[in-house]
Amino acid sequence: EDDAVQKVCDEALKLDEDGPSTPSTSRPSSLTALLGQTFNVAVTTAEPKLAHTRAEEEVRMYLEAPSLPLTDDPLEWWSTNHHVYPLLAKLAKRYLCIPGTSVAAERVFSTAGDIVSAQRSTLTPQHVDQLVFLHKNLVIPEL
Q: How many Cβ atoms are within 10 Å of 53's Cβ, its own excluded?
């Protein structure tokens, strides 16, 4: 479980870093003008650790929260709770979105066309579904 939490945290932080950054247009404070970049090194080295801790806490909170009933809409739930889990909401937006192309569906139809031929025309729809599933998901190692 810790490995899965670590992977989710890393991916959430990567998405957070890739997000649009708004440039600061405010003028520097007098302390910044006086000291320059002297203390920025300490702040930037501590920031990734804080961000990772924040991501871990967010994932742990999400895992401890009650599960969403199967009858509820996950997109609506994320829309309501995106402020509670901001990093995970970015991941949800990425993985719960509708694919922009039909390539995956076309591949399945192509595979089904390869499986259902004149010699196999007596296959039941259930067997065709099972064969397509196995063809797309079964990894057979080469000897």
A: 11
74's tokens: 């996950």
* Per-residue tokens: 123: 């296959």
Question: One-letter amino acid identity for 114?
Answer: D
What interhelical angle do 40-64 and 2-18 show, nearest 10?
A: 130
Tokens of 96: 């719960």
Asked if 32 and 110 count as a contact pair (C-beta separation under 8 A), the reply is no
Per DSSP, 108 falls in state: H
* Residues ≥6 apart with Cβ < 8 Å to 116: 123, 128
Question: Which amino acid type is present at position 10?
Answer: D
| Per-residue pLDDT reduced to its tens digit, 40-90 | 554 455 555 687 788 889 989 999 999 989 999 998 999 999 999 998 998
